[in-house]
Amino acid sequence: MSVRVLLFGRLADLAGWRERGFDPAPATLSALRAKIAADDAALGEALCGKGVQVAVDKQIVRGEAALAAGAEVAFLPPMSGG
Amino acid sequence: MTVRLLTDVFDPGHELTAFCAGRTESGAVASFVGIARGEAGAVTALELEAYPGFTDAEIGRMVEATTVRFSLHDALVIHRHGPIAPGEPIVMVATAAAHRRAAFEACDQLMDYLKSRAPFWKKEHGPDGVRWVEPTAQDLDDLRRWE
Q: What pTM was computed for the model?
């Protein structure tokens, strides 16, 4: 089972993708960040940028988090409002 | 309480009629409709990105807090996402309360929240290309009025 990663706003433009599966599933958020950074250093850096929040299964998490197989991880740049 | 994210154009008049229907105890319904501005040709289209399941849940939490604060009888938020052309409605808020002051203020507060904090990512398409938009200083000042 993989981890599904979603990118929003300028992060998706930077990466050139909005949704991607990572298989095998990284066990933690930091392992996932390292995997992304290894593939795309600029994106890896942008995901750590100021104001970027992370949601795991649609709940905001701060700092480290364990990732269950099938988890959905979303990287959310600063929100613009509607 | 109803929160709806839509990609299609909606009819604010129809929504308001439905929201008012059958109310015998709410003396006041206030509503607001936000429309995409063309900025005299500088904006040819607006694109709003939402995270369905997250965006609506976050808005729902704010609507619940506002409902408690102003003792609302009911509230409706409709918000578009996807591409939006100038002149089309983007957002509608309606609030029902016993008296007008609570309905007006709750509607005002919900709009200030939606304009500055709601989880959307906004992109403007214009003759000079595309740009991501962030809340203006005015939007953030407006939100502070409710602290």
A: 0.90
Selecting from B34, B120, B123 the residue whose C-beta is nearest the C-beta of A79 gives: B120
Element containing residue B78 per DSSP (H, E)? strand B74-80
Do B121 and A7 touch, CB atoms closer than 8 A?
no
Give the dihedral of Cα atoms A60, A79, B47, A58; nearest 10 deg: 0
Q: Are B111 and B100 in contact (CB under 8 A)?
A: no
Q: Inter-chain contact A82–B115, Cβ cutoff 8 Å?
A: yes
Segment B59-72, tens digit of pLDDT: 999 999 999 999 99
Question: CB burial class (10 A; 0-12, 13-18, 19+) of residue A77?
Answer: buried
Evaluate whether B42 touches B36 at the Cβ level (below 8 Å): no
Domain boundaries defined on chain A: 3-76
CA-CA distance, B128 to B37, in Å (whole number)? 17
Model ipTM? Answer: 0.92
- Cβ distance A9 to B132 less than 8 Å, yes or no, reads yes
* Residue A66 DSSP class: B
Count of domains forming chain B? 1
What's the CATH number where B112 sits? 3.90.1170.40
Class of domain A3-76: alpha beta
